[in-house]
Design goal:
- By secondary structure, the chain is α/β, with parallel strands linked by helices.
- It has 4 domains: 123 residues, Rossmann fold (3-Layer(aba) Sandwich); 84 residues, 2-Layer Sandwich (Alpha-Beta Plaits); 119 residues, NAD(P)-binding Rossmann-like Domain (Rossmann fold); 87 residues, 2-Layer Sandwich (Alpha-Beta Plaits), CATH 3.30.70.
- It is 30% helix and 26% strand.
- It contains 14 helices and 22 strands.
- The strands form 4 sheets. The protein has a 6-stranded parallel beta sheet with strand order 3-2-1-4-5-6, with helices on both faces.
């Protein structure tokens, strides 16, 4: 398989690195000689300089033999034109583009991307996906991460076990069924002191761990209580930043939680006036600097239950969240792009970190994996992915019990969905063709896991 990645920023270079480790032939195009050289020297990929939408550049990159083009430059227009050129001149089979501007994403304009117009197979909209991800976290306040799977029948939850109320602390995971009969959950991963690992039955959860669990949606409230979290959904919310993320989020919360009082702080007067017109009576829009204590007090931060900081500046988001919590706000959800900040944030009291690049990478990688994969979520860039895939009739996975098929080290099956039934598997469970299987796979085990899930063929992305 051959892939061209347009754009060598954090998203493009991370995707290229992931694909290269899987043995995929990757060429990365960037207009910056420094960026192109960096990916060429850092990863097992070819980096080249040029404008990704220019036909001669795509030709030099090998577009005539490429199976897929992934356009993630900073420019929506370059991404869209690159897909058009790749299709019209080189017949590249699959084309993915990151598009940010809301005007390109309105439902009335989606016909623009039809095959006979501007042929883009998959549109990735980071701002809308980030807003959706924050809304999900808002609805499950005890979790720092939450992802619906299998059409909402199953939830992937990330939970801080930092309280003595967590009933799992100190117990080996093999005792989970006796501690919580008919639990309907599996602990897929544990993060301890910044290191993630796939647990075994003898492993214990320690205070301060972050755990990732997969659970039946109908049992989530019970599971959250078992893990020491009984937080209620916030009724008073402050959103800091009125860009595309903040505006989309405010609209989503107004629809899904109409009883919630929303206040939005925006630094630009012109933008604040626009947002006020867009939101109408569903939110109070304040013009001001969220780093100014007086502005936070005007927003009634001391009575707010959640602050959601989503400006375009990481430092503003972090310090606004810290100030708000010091003034009495109970919970902070903070958008942070720079992964280097991640180890520092828990010590600052920030409850939930949202990483736009990780969300974008997850969305793109789902379309690169085998056709059987219907959902994918990257847990940590250095750890692994949670994958939802359909068990194929020709795969080894359906030829015996889980114990017999030889699940590789670094892969853990968390749930099986058969029709409307959610099955929490044991080693004796037999997976049937057509079952949706939710698994955690570390990157070291990815090749073996893919072969087990989908069989040896990789003729399609």
């Amino acid at each position: 398989m051959r892939v061209i990645v347009c754009g060598a920023g954090q998203v493009g270079s991370t995707i290229a690195r992931h694909l290269a480790t899987e043995g995929i032939d990757v060429t990365v195009i960037d207009s910056s000689p420094e960026q192109a050289r960096r990916v060429d020297e850092s990863y097992d990929v070819r980096g080249m300089v040029g404008h990704a939408s220019h036909p001669e550049v795509l030709e030099r990159a090998g577009a005539q033999d490429a199976d897929m083009l992934i356009a993630v430059t900073r420019s929506d227009e370059v991404n869209m034109v690159a897909c058009q050129v790749a299709y019209s001149l080189f017949n590249v089979r699959r084309r993915i583009a990151r598009v940010r501007h809301s005007g390109y994403l309105e439902k009335s304009r989606l016909g623009l991307y039809a095959r006979d117009q501007m042929p883009i197979d998959v549109i990735i909209s980071p701002e809308m996906e980030v807003a959706s991800g924050i809304e999900r976290r808002f609805r499950t306040p005890g979790a720092f991460d939450t992802v619906p799977l299998a059409e909402g029948r199953v939830q992937l939850l990330g939970i801080h076990c930092n309280s003595g109320a967590c009933s799992l602390i100190g117990h080996p995971l093999s005792e989970l069924k006796s501690l919580l009969p008919d639990a309907g959950l599996v602990v897929l991963g544990i993060v301890r002191d910044g290191e993630a690992f796939v647990p075994h039955g003898q492993d214990r959860v320690e205070r301060g761990d972050d755990v990732y669990v997969v659970a039946e949606t109908r049992r989530v409230d019970r599971i959250m209580r078992f893990l020491g979290h009984e937080e209620e959904i916030a009724r008073r919310v402050i959103i800091v930043g009125g860009g595309n993320v903040g505006l989309n989020l405010a609209k989503r919360l107004a629809r899904s939680a109409p009883a919630t009082s929303i206040r939005l702080i925006e630094h630009s007067r012109e933008r604040a006036e626009f947002i006020s017109q867009e939101l109408g009576d569903s939110a109070v829009v304040l013009h001001g600097d969220a780093l100014d204590k007086e502005t936070l007090i005007e927003a009634n931060v001391q009575a707010a239950e959640t602050i959601i900081a989503v400006t375009n500046d990481d430092e503003t988001n972090i310090f606004t969240s810290v100030l708000a919590k010091r003034e009495g706000c109970a919970r902070a959800i903070t958008l942070v792009n720079k992964s280097s900040y991640e180890p520092l944030l828990p010590t600052l009291g920030i409850d939930t970190v949202v990483a736009p690049n990780a969300i974008t990478i997850s969305s793109i990688l789902r379309h690169v994996r085998h056709r059987s994969v219907s959902a994918l979520y990257t847990l940590r860039e250095d750890f692994g992915e949670v994958i939802e895939a359909t068990a194929q009739a020709g795969s080894r996975l359906v030829h015996g019990s889980i114990r017999q098929v030889g699940v590789p080290e670094g892969m853990l099956i968390g749930a099986i969905v058969r029709g409307d039934e959610v099955i929490i598997p044991t080693s004796s469970t037999v997976i049937e063709p057509g079952d949706r299987v939710i698994v955690l796979v570390t990157y070291r085990a990815l090749r073996k896991a893919e072969a087990l899930l989908a069989g040896p063929s990789r003729d399609e992305p």
